[in-house]
Amino acid sequence: MIEDLIHSPAGAMNFGIFFLLAIVFLLILLAFVTYAILAERKVMGFMQLRYGPNHVGGRWGLLQTVADVLKLLLKEDIIPKMADKPLFIIAPVIAFAPAFMILATIPFTDKFQFADIGIGLLYYIAISGITTVGIVAGGWASNNKYALLGGMRAAAQMISYEIPLVMSVVGVILIAGSLNLNDIVAAQEHYWFIIMQPLAFIIFIIASVSELNRTPFDLPEAESELVAGFHTEYSGFRWAFFMLAEYVYLFAMGALTTVLFLGGWLPLFSFLDFIPGAVWFAFKFSVVIFILIWIRASFPRIRADQLMEFGWKVLLPLALANIFITAILKELI
């Protein structure tokens, strides 16, 4: 049936348009990620009383990350002699591809969404977990003890923090009565869920930082004890795949936070609805990303035992308590 659709003139045209749009979106996203990395470096430089990039590309260092990408493209692609070569080659792709797949379900506005899936939130959580498989595979295939330890840390971290992350959004699902991200945004027409679920929001932000492997939870790539962690043996654009996956997930998680807790594209007050929804979404999204950068610039890395203890003994009980409190209040009200 799909082959008939593609081979028919109208189907081929639609498929071609869809493919072209996908390529354009991918290029826009890569350009956005490139300059978002520059923005993060500039913001962190400001917070830590450093200049940040300011030479390449003029006064503001606008071409610094472009130069970094070109440098990675031109670097030699090295594969260790004793590595599991097929797995070593495919691991960055396994880590990178899901980062783009999850963007399909995120509603940026009421009219701009690639796929309106009834279980969009479940899809996001399920697909994003595949990236950890790529990280573990890369660490294992490298045949390097430091890389293997980094991969194992990533797996343990994902298991520990995926549970409170999912538990924190159960309260949102209970109130909205749906796993569809559009329905969750519509349920926030009068009150954003950050007001109704403040504890869930805090748990979600902390768990999402851990899921993103960012400071202070960047143990899978802790250079102080693991050289570079799971991607120690990677170079060139294979290494860039891991880095880009992290940054695409950063912005995907910022977008998901905006949808779940900040009302998505809905205005702050009803009398401000003349401002386009895309502007509201971009503003809220930028605030979330700024907070995540702020966290990275402010906190030191914690120990592995502290990471596990905090996830299982603090975040998980709080997430469970939030579910019970939400369920009781929903029944009473």
Describe, in plain words, how this protein is organized in 3D.
By secondary structure, the protein is mostly helical. 69% of the residues lie in helices and 0% in strands. It is built from 14 helices and no strands. The chain has helices at 2-7, 9-47, 64-74, 85-101, 120-128, 130-141, 145-176, 181-186, 193-196, 198-211, 223-226, 236-261, 277-298, 304-332. Helix 2 crosses helix 3 and helix 4 (85-101) packs parallel to helix 12 (236-261). The protein is globular, with a radius of gyration of 21 Å.
Blueprint (SSEs and pairs):
Elements: H1 2-7, H2 9-47, H3 64-74, H4 85-101, H5 120-128, H6 130-141, H7 145-176, H8 181-186, H9 193-196, H10 198-211, H11 223-226, H12 236-261, H13 277-298, H14 304-332
Helix pairs in contact: 2-3, 2-12, 2-13, 3-12, 4-6, 4-12, 6-7, 7-10, 7-14, 10-12, 10-14, 12-13
